[in-house]
Structures are given as C-alpha cells and as structure tokens.
C-alpha cells in the first residue's frame, strides 16, 4: 500500500531498527589518585578535581636519583628550606606543586625563546 504503518503482522510495538550494541573498552580508564573519580582513558586530567593523570607504572622514571634531584631543584626554587626539603618532597601533596612549578618554568622558557627570536630578526 506504500504507507509507513506497522510492519507485517505487527501492531507498532516492535523496537524497530536499533544500533548494534558495542561493548565499550574501559580497560584503559583510570582512577584519580586525588578524588577517586573514574576517568575515560583519553583524559589527561580528572574531570572532577582537575588533578593530572598519574603516570602508568611503565612510564615511571628509571633513575630515582634523577627524580629526587628534580624534586629538590623545584623545592629550592620555590623557597623550601633546604633543611626540610628532603621531607617535603616525600609528601605526595607536593607533587602538584612540582608539576605546577615545572609548567610555569616551561612557559617562561617559551616566552624567553619568543623574545630572543624577535631580537634575532
């Protein structure tokens, strides 16, 4: 008849065409160390508290001495008393401060390079 009524033998109660169910891979999703929220694998920071994504164990720095020196350098630059710096860098809460300091340093380096390039032209 050319109309678009219910299908043969049906009374319009079927579900009609549905997209096939695709099982979403959540194996690489991660849990925020700071607030415990579950985040999609693609996120670089927690959607809830904006804490940075923790490094996977296989990406941890191999040289612990270099990691310690990096943390101490940041602590000294932030004005932490050298006498207390060893204790401060062991506190997990200090990791956010180190990351913030390093981002600031990179931004300043980028600005300095831009200024140098302007003078070289």
Key descriptive features of the protein:
single chain; 121 residues; mainly alpha; 2 domains; 3 helices; 2 strands; 3% strand
Report on this structure.
This protein has 121 residues and is mainly α. The protein folds into two domains: 26-60, no CATH class; 62-121. The protein is 41% helix and 3% strand. It is built from three helices and two strands. A two-stranded antiparallel sheet has the order 1-2. Helix 1 (64-77) crosses helix 2 (82-90). It is flat and about 70 Å long. The N and C termini lie far apart (77 Å). The mean pLDDT is 82.
List the helices and strands and how they pair.
Blueprint: E1 30-31, E2 38-39, H1 64-77, H2 82-90, H3 94-120
Helix pairs in contact: 1-2
Could you tell me the radius of gyration in angstroms? 27 Å
End-to-end gap = 77 Å
* Number of domain units: 2
| Order of neighbouring strands in the sheet with most strands | 1-2
How is the biggest beta sheet arranged? Answer: 2 strands, antiparallel
Structural class: mainly alpha
What's the SSE pattern?
EEHHH
- The count of strands amounts to 2
Helix content: 40-55%
Overall mean confidence score, pLDDT: 82
Name the assembly state.
single chain
Instruction: Report the uncertain regions.
Output: none
Shape: flat
Helix count equals: 3
Q: Estimate what percentage of residues fall within beta strands.
A: under 5%
